[in-house]
């Protein structure tokens, strides 16, 4: 290598990382710092800001709307994860049976909702939930005419808003998680199953002692990402409830509340406070999940 | 050897469950396609397809909103974001994967930290910043902040670490410049990852709703998700037009997915399964 090449080789990594780093610093890192500062201000739009110390955080603790938003979001996250992951794992196990034909078709079918952006899912399902006519309403009515009369207003009944959104999210994400589980199942060492069979292990025993340990990292990964994603719920309720928060705020989520306070009311400071609270919840819950699944100990 | 009766029953149950699950998953999509072909008068009269076909819904869609303009806006914003993200992320990923330089660990740790923080945290300050830069209600206000993809860097760093060092050394001895090594050698090797990343990045930008909803105010600047949602507010009764708009909005992603399917699934799961 001559001198010019040597210099080029030395400088190259910095030059290559620079364009990204400039954008990253300006539009990611700096806003994070700025948002920490903003959380201590009350603002009216981007121009007026008044320092209020920790008042935002104190106000947030006693804010009934924020409390509702947290309750709704946590309910959604809990139910969604508890439904989506077992369904996804079940589908993946069914699909990973060696003799199943048309595996590519099924995988594509289950994954296809993932291609529909959440806004479009929201628009589509708001029509599927139309009272009297919507096919979901008609289907549930056919299953149980007493519990679901044809005029059931899923998106206008405070007890049914969350179940409707949880159903929609299940349709949207089960196939997404399934793809991960399927890849993980296919990576489990086949010899382990043979050894277990030789030892006379039943199907359930094989699942517990071979399959689950084999796919554990992916289960933990999916549990974390789906929980974090669920806590950021916004588009589905926002669209399905016609840009509102539903009857008695039954569809109000944390991010929707952040949107309303920051960009409808115009208090960017308070919105930052809400944002940091959300980050805090997500962190605590992720850590709790990591601890419960034992991911922190072994690796 | 014939399978036992119990095996046949179990297999029957598995297939039944799979078919049922596929039906549940595909029904809304089939219903959507059917809905767009129905005459508005038939909309609720038939579950799926009606005996007479009609293009009324598409006509109504284009009459109600400037749908074509929204498509152009979305295509412009999305392709800009994808191209910038792809170029910057792969270049930085290459740097982190194949060079040992001062500050490499600092950069990595810094990015890892920000991945943990949900994007909504920075929305308020970003809004203020976009306002100061005079980018409010512009496509640049969507593209510039949207061009940062930390996820992309990690994806490319991981893929490029696996490119053999000998290949790079050989090229260097042959007198290739560092950029030529990136463009001519490393990028072609990680081509499947490029495909996967393009699709993921395309879907993210194409379907993006919250940020455009915050900064776009003028109707002629709207991207598809915002524009279509404005139809929900305006004409609650025009279900057919709404469904036509939904179907057309989904199509580009479906086409791209079918083209890049293999790369996509591989790219999506590579980090999770290996790491």
Structure description:
The complex is a heterodimer of chains A (299) and B (275). Chain A is mainly α and 299 residues long. Chain A has helices spanning 3-38, 55-61, 64-95, 103-111, 118-128, 135-143, 161-187, 190-198, 203-231, 235-240, 254-264, 268-292, 295-298, and strands at residues 41-44, 48-51. A two-stranded antiparallel sheet of chain A has the order 1-2. By secondary structure, chain B is mostly helical. Chain B has 13 helices and no strands. Chain B has helices spanning 5-37, 56-64, 67-98, 104-116, 123-132, 140-146, 150-161, 165-173, 178-189, 191-207, 210-215, 224-234, 239-274. Chains A and B meet through helix 1, helix 3, helix 4, helix 5 and helix 7 of A and helix 1, helix 3, helix 4, helix 5 and helix 9 of B.
Note the topology.
The complex is a heterodimer of chains A (299) and B (275).
Chain A: H1 3-38, E1 41-44, E2 48-51, H2 55-61, H3 64-95, H4 103-111, H5 118-128, H6 135-143, H7 161-187, H8 190-198, H9 203-231, H10 235-240, H11 254-264, H12 268-292, H13 295-298
Antiparallel strand pairs in A: 1-2
Chain B: H1 5-37, H2 56-64, H3 67-98, H4 104-116, H5 123-132, H6 140-146, H7 150-161, H8 165-173, H9 178-189, H10 191-207, H11 210-215, H12 224-234, H13 239-274
Helix pairs in contact in B: 1-13, 2-13, 3-6, 3-7, 3-10, 8-9, 10-13, 12-13
Query: What level of helicity do the residues of chain B show?
Result: over 70%
| Spans where pLDDT lies below 50 across 5 or more residues of chain B | none
Major pleated sheet of chain B: none
Helix content of chain A: over 70%
CA-atom Rg of chain B in angstroms: 24 Å
Question: What overall form of chain B do the CA principal axes indicate?
Answer: globular
Shape of chain A: globular
β content of chain A, as a range?
under 5%
Q: Overall mean pLDDT score of chain A?
A: 90
Q: Number of helical runs of chain A?
A: 13
SSE string of chain A: HEEHHHHHHHHHHHH
The beta-strand count of chain A equals: 2
Mean pLDDT over the full residue set of chain B? 89
Number of helices of chain B: 13
Category by helix and strand content of chain A: mainly alpha
